[in-house]
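User: Can you recover a sequence for this backbone? Please restate the input before giving your answer.

Assistant: Of course. Working from this structure:
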């Protein structure tokens, strides 16, 4: 249900106070892949960073390095660098198929390289093997109870992109509080989602890093990986953060027309 409240007023509603259960926990020791699982031919530690590398991109489907512990509400911050190809930070995710295949489905904080990729998707919220694109860069998106998406522009996509360094180290922060998700790169909010679709959203799951299939040669690195688990988080409701009246409805992609074979 879409509620009639102007955007300016809707943004005044603050989220409940969140209790921090623990201090920041390091998920990477800077030496080896202890605590992480993935295909050894794709993942290693180089220059004090978790490093994913493929020479030709022919890896038989998107592959992931998995922190095999379920996490619910949290703040995650890390530094990343990508040269070539596409990657992402999976969260509240799950294994799809055999665990040893390292195929993951769930929310993704996207990472895209410069060059041919032109950082097209960096910063967005994408749901791997799920609902697809949930929030474009610079947008705030409400996913309604029936899956309909509404968005408002919080910042121009190109202006967000100016804060992200090409082929260099950047800091990513992902915050997941109940059904309220936020991505930030170098302190700038790149995507924000309020997910009301209870039958599709995830409240907890695995963390993972991605190497995207079919992107040619690429290197992605992660370091200074810190996690803070949160408690006392309450779900955002439509009453607390309604869909603004001036939000734009995102129309689903039209199905491709089937080719009719001539007899």
């Amino acid at each position: 249900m879409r509620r009639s409240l102007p955007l300016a007023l809707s943004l005044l509603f603050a989220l409940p106070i969140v209790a921090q259960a623990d201090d920041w926990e390091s998920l990477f020791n800077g030496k080896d892949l202890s605590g992480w699982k993935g295909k050894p031919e794709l993942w290693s530690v180089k220059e004090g960073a978790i490093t994913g590398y493929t020479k030709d991109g022919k890896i038989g489907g998107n592959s992931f390095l998995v922190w095999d512990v379920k996490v619910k509400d949290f703040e995650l911050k890390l530094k990343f660098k990508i040269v070539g190809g596409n990657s992402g930070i999976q969260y509240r995710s799950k294994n799809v198929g055999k665990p040893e295949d390292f195929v993951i489905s769930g929310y993704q904080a996207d990472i895209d390289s410069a060059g041919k990729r032109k950082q097209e998707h960096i910063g967005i919220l994408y749901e791997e093997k799920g609902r697809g694109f949930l929030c474009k860069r610079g947008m705030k998106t409400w996913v309604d109870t029936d899956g309909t998406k509404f968005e408002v522009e919080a910042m121009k996509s190109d202006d967000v992109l100016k804060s992200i360094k090409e082929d260099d180290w950047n800091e990513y922060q992902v915050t997941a509080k109940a059904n309220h998700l936020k991505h930030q790169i170098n302190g700038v909010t790149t995507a924000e989602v309020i997910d009301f679709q209870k039958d599709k959203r995830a409240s907890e799951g695995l963390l993972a890093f991605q190497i995207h299939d079919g992107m040619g040669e690429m290197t992605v690195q992660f370091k200074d990986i810190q996690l803070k688990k949160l408690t006392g988080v309450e779900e955002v409701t439509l009453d607390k953060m309604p869909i603004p009246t001036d939000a734009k409805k995102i129309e689903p992609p039209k199905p491709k027309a089937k080719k009719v074979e001539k007899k």
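That completes the design. DSSP finds two helices and 19 strands in the chain.
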